[in-house]
Specification:
Blueprint (H helix, E strand, L loop, with lengths): L14 H61 L9 H14 L4 H11 L20 H6 L8 H18 L4 H10 L1 H7 L6 H16 L1
């Protein structure tokens, strides 16, 4: 912008005239300059708003749609399903009596393994209420890991085996249930695995407070 275009053409005759006119000239210049800048910024702001409306909003809506669809599926993955809880309770009581276990221990394991979701499957492949691994399920003669009664029967039987192996020590039995008896034997106690070190006290405390 050429500032001379805003200056008057007539010469100033005295210093007094210059003193009076100079502020008016500068005020006019800056007022015009600021007006032009504000108009330019407003135009840029309007353009950006239009671009957001045309391009960003559909993307955000798509993301929101995907999030609203996926998140509930993740949150509900290990929540109880519509399976009759009385059926689960009956299966727990029967398995506890059969294998001489405290039913509260079975309940605590199910609570932390699957949160009573008989269809739960872990990334490692453990499945069902008591999260039996395929090899373990086969060893325990569990044909359908997603059947609550079969799964609880197999899990309770495995807990009984681990308790017998570690002379009734519940914490070691839980460690073996989570990490395998081989690792408990190898380390002479609860294996130094972050998951197992977290799992054992959580399940044990639930068992004690039921």
């Amino acid at each position: 912008m050429n500032i001379s275009s805003y200056l008057p053409l007539q010469p100033l005759s005295t210093n007094a005239q210059a003193t009076k006119i100079q502020p008016t000239i500068m005020q006019s210049y800056f007022s015009t300059f600021l007006a032009e800048q504000m108009e330019r910024l407003q135009m840029e702001s309007n353009l950006k708003t239009q671009q957001r409306g045309l391009f960003l909003d559909p993307t955000l809506n798509e993301i929101k749609h995907k999030t609203s669809t996926v998140l509930p599926a993740i949150e509900n993955r290990n929540k109880p399903t519509t399976v009759d809880n009385s059926e689960i309770q009956i299966s727990i009581d029967r398995a506890a009596q059969k294998y001489q276990l405290d039913p509260k221990l079975i309940y605590a394991v199910i609570k932390h393994e699957s949160n009573f979701n008989p269809k739960a499957v872990s990334p490692a492949g453990a499945a069902g209420l008591m999260q039996l691994m395929p090899a373990t399920a086969k060893m325990l003669n569990v044909n359908n890991v997603f059947d609550p009664t079969e799964n609880i029967e197999g899990g309770a039987k495995y807990l009984r085996q681990m308790l017998d192996r570690y002379n009734g020590n519940v914490q070691l039995a839980l460690a073996a249930y989570n990490a395998g008896p081989g690792n408990v034997d190898k380390y002479g106690g609860i294996p130094p695995f972050k998951e197992t070190e977290s799992y054992v006290p959580r399940v044990f405390n639930t068992y004690l407070t039921l």
